[in-house]
User: Fold this.
Amino acid sequence: MLSIESECHVQPLLLALAASLLLSPAASAYTAPLKLNPPVTFFYNCDDGRSLVVRHYSLSDRSLEFIKLSLPGKVHTLAHVVSASGARYSDGDNVQWWSKGENGALNENAHDERARLTQCTQALSAGH
Assistant:
């Protein structure tokens, strides 16, 4: 239970906290609208003979990043997720893509710990 003496110290602290929140940039009356940046496209050749296309999208403030992973006959939308090294994307279910530098790894069966990763290398353009 707070005493009257401790309440006197808490009120100025609460007022200072409230003032700092109201004066912060996040509380300003004008916030620039978010826009989707143009996609950045990468082409990969994989060790299983397939070629794939990765289109990287992000919001203008970089608060959201995702990719469209195009495989022959399929397109997957994968969200950026935490990774210890490189960039990792997942559909939250079964498909995962990791990339670091010019290399990538595709897992199309994330539920199976023994699933083989498809290794891919960045190509200069489609079909190369």
Observations:
- The radius of gyration is 23 Å.
- The chain has a mean pLDDT of 81.
- The first strand starts at residue 40 and ends at 46.
- Residues 39 and 57 are 5 Å apart (CA to CA).
